[in-house]
């Protein structure tokens, strides 16, 4: 399996949560889909940074991986609380 086919498979796996977010109306399902997109994108960034041997790109991938999902989950909790009131 070549590197290009691995990246193409990662991009195809990224399309699944995009379709789910586009189709579903539930806010929690959309937030989970966006969290999945953020995770898959950061893993792709980490793979590319290893292939290019560029640690600055890897740092960006790690920041997205560690902070991105927390922000999405806080936003989803805030939207849920606002809908309850």
From TrEMBL:
Highest taxon of the lineage: Bacteria
Residues that span the membrane, as ranges: 6-22, 31-51, 57-79
Source organism: Stanieria cyanosphaera (strain ATCC 29371 / PCC 7437)
UniProt keywords, alphabetically: Membrane, Transmembrane, Transmembrane helix
Entry protein name: Multisubunit sodium/proton antiporter, MrpF subunit
């Amino acid at each position: 399996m070549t590197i290009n086919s691995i990246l193409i498979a990662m991009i195809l796996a990224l399309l699944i949560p995009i379709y789910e977010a586009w189709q579903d109306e539930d806010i929690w399902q959309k937030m989970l889909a966006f969290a999945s997109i953020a995770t898959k994108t950061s893993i792709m960034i980490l793979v590319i940074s290893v292939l290019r041997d560029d640690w600055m790109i890897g740092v960006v991938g790690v920041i997205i991986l560690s902070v991105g999902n927390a922000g999405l989950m806080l936003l989803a909790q805030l939207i849920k609380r606002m809908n309850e009131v």
